[in-house]
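Researcher: Here's a chain I'd like modeled. Treat it as a single chain, no partners, no ligands.
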Amino acid sequence: MDHFNPDRLLSDERKKFEDPEKFLPELLKTGEIVADLGCGPGYYCRVLKDYASKLYCVDKSLEMIQRARSYCQGDNVVFVNRESSDTLIPSGTVDVVILANSFHDMDRDAVYEEIKRILKKDGRVIVVDWRKDAPFGPPPQKRMCKEDYLSFFKDFKLDREFYVGPYHFGLVLTRI
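Model: Modeled as a single isolated chain. Structure tokens:
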């Protein structure tokens, strides 16, 4: 699977192994401010908008932001065509950051600092990422495992793990 092909990223086939409607509802509280960093064509945004009082869909690719805008609409959705390391989201205003299959492609150090800047003191990061042994997805050498995230997110604690599907893992990290 080409993990940058917008049509494949929005396909019904993807729902068979990664369906955010099956796990996001139990991880979110209604009315939170959410930032989807590296949102791509809006696969997660479509679900997140129903829970968020404000949803920031952030992606550096104008093509992906345009796709997300056509795929996910709502008065509470703000599309941000910028690097995830420089979102212009006001400091300390975000309850939840979503990193869905994206952090491995980012400037991790800079994005980590941006996450700490935009999150509220008790904010959460929800991670969905590819298992290293998944038969498709990003190149295996780019993938991060649970332990990689836990060592990288040193200002956070692991609150819970959740099941995404056979090819992904899910983590909820809370700022400490």
